[in-house]
Amino acid sequence: MPDMGGRQKRGIGLRLRNAHDAGQLVLVRCQHCNIKRWYQPGDLIKLFGNAEVDQLTGAMVCVKCGLKEYILAESESLT
Prior knowledge:
Number of helices: 2
Distance between the termini: 34 Å
Order of helices and strands: HEEHE
Radius of gyration: 13 Å
Number of strands: 3
């Protein structure tokens, strides 16, 4: 595997509309204070548009500690 220099390979990521259509939820958690929040993709579309789920990582702020560097967003299927 080639060395990417610490960069992730960018491809077509999962968009909020696709997660909504698949019935998934978006888990947003802070790795600093270990707080977790579940969001419906339809609610996040109203705030961020049809963004990739990975792009929410830099756009959201933790409600407990106020840091955005530790936020991680991922889609989850609860079935």
